[in-house]
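Subject — a protein and its fold

Tokens — whole-number codes for backbone shape
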Amino acid sequence: MAKAWREQVVIPTYEVGTPEKNPIFLEKRVYQGSSGVVYPYPVIESISDEKVDKTYNAVWLENEYIKVMILPELGGRVQMAYDKLKERHFVYYNHVIKPALVGLLGPWISGGIEFNWPQHHRPTTYMPADCTIEEKEDGSVTVWVSEMEQMFHQKGMAGFTLRPGCAYLEIHGVLYNRTDVPQTFL
């Protein structure tokens, strides 16, 4: 049987600074080969040098083979994926949240699996995502993380499904263009 649940976890974290209160218009900035535009999102330009223990609201998926931790507060990323039979992580697990200022809006962290829409490293990769748990009649569970992004007004979703008796995590990406005009995404 596969199961999903919410549980608080404490992870050592280097906090980010206060977001810039005034909009920054960066129309001419090139960011790793894509547009550096970030408006209307605020930019963060500092990271604390002090590590603190921070509580996150994690969502877990587990069956007899694997255990996965998703952090909706950090963009809905898969923070940890563990193989219970081999007793090892099968996705790089960073035990500390230590952002670097390399993201479109500033903070970006290594490790896990992040989801990127509408461009490159998603601008909101360090911002909260919506999260729901869906239990199915076949015993599988799906955790959906999603956001309505503000730059191009698209909705991006990632669904993580774990089935009983399966030693893999299914990931389904869904994008919605909520406008009347074509939109691009990477």
Summary: The chain has a mean pLDDT of 91. The chain has no helices and 13 strands. The radius of gyration is 17 Å. The first strand starts at residue 3 and ends at 16.
